[in-house]
């Protein structure tokens, strides 16, 4: 009898460990999807040239258009609504927060080193560009475990 009880307990423990492994794999998949979305959003933002300055031969990024493009790409790639809350069926459950958005324009000397000690991020830009940091929360499948949170960082330069 004790062997049967032991066997049942071991099966339960194995199922729990297997479920935790599946949860970890889903979290890593979410991390990769989120990172790709942040990179795409930063790249889209960096391509929003200021047409008036471009006519004068100055490479510059329009900050308003850049922010709008970044938000649009984040919303499309992470399946978010207009206020960055997840839409029904999205893999996220909490709102995506843009923690840092910085446009580095022609008024800086290049190469420009962007440093953000709060998030431990440093990047060197050789021409005008955009830096984007987005906070995502992955809800665990099991309520016993705390959610996993990431500050995803991305940057891109204006391509000409």
List the topology elements:
Layout: H1 2-46, H2 51-55, H3 63-78, E1 97-104, E2 112-116, E3 121-125, E4 129-138, E5 148-157
Antiparallel strand pairs: 1-4, 2-3, 4-5
Helix pairs in contact: 1-3
Strand content: 15-25%
Report how far apart the termini are: 75 Å
Q: What gross morphology would you assign?
A: elongated
> How many individual helices?
3
Give the % helix: 40-55%
Instruction: Tell me which oligomeric state these chains represent.
Output: single chain
Q: Averaging pLDDT over every residue, what do you get? A: 85
Element string (H = helix, E = strand): HHHEEEEE
Which structural class do the helices and strands define?
Answer: alpha+beta
Q: Which blocks of ≥5 consecutive residues have pLDDT under 50? A: none
Strand order of the largest sheet: 1-4-5
Radius of gyration: 21 Å
Q: Describe the largest sheet.
A: 3 strands, antiparallel
How many beta-strand runs? 5
Any idea how many domains? 1
């Amino acid at each position: 009898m004790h062997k049967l009880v032991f066997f049942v307990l071991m099966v339960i423990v194995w199922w729990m460990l297997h479920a935790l492994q599946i949860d970890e794999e889903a979290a890593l998949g979410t991390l990769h999807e989120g990172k790709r979305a942040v990179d795409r959003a930063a790249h889209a933002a960096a391509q929003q040239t200021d047409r008036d300055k471009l006519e004068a031969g100055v490479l510059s990024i329009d900050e308003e258009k850049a922010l709008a493009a970044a938000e649009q790409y984040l919303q499309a790639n992470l399946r978010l609504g207009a206020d960055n809350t997840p839409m029904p069926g999205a893999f996220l459950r909490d709102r995506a927060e843009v923690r840092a958005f910085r446009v580095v324009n022609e008024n800086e000397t290049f190469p420009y080193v962007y440093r953000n000690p709060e998030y431990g991020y440093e990047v060197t830009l050789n021409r005008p560009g955009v830096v984007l940091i987005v906070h995502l929360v992955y809800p665990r499948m099991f309520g016993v475990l705390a959610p996993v949170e990431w500050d995803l960082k991305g940057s891109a330069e204006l391509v000409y």
